[in-house]
Write a structure and sequence with these properties.
Elements: H1 19-33, H2 44-52, H3 54-79
Helix pairs in contact: 1-2, 1-3
Length: about 80
């Protein structure tokens, strides 16, 4: 069995290094944080970008939920 020393299974330089990944992340975050209907209909090329980077989209949604929880906690601490 050959061992590679110093080689990680995850290369952090590859995270969010293209615009499609950022677009999917921000889209997921925005859909949760701002739950009203979108102003513009999604175009087919945008849907394709999100479909290819679905894991970033779901991570953005998780960050949006955490932002709501954080906002609720801050409001509770400051007002009550």
């Amino acid at each position: 069995m050959k061992r590679t020393i110093g080689k990680l299974w995850l290369d952090v330089t590859e995270l969010l290094n293209v615009y499609q990944e950022w677009h999917a992340l921000v889209n997921g975050f925005s859909e949760v944080l701002c739950p009203w209907p979108p102003r513009h209909k999604p175009s087919p090329e945008n849907e394709k970008d999100i479909a290819n980077e679905y894991h970033y989209y779901m991570f953005g949604r998780a960050l949006g939920i955490l932002a709501w929880i954080t906002t609720g906690c801050v409001i509770k601490v400051t007002l009550f």
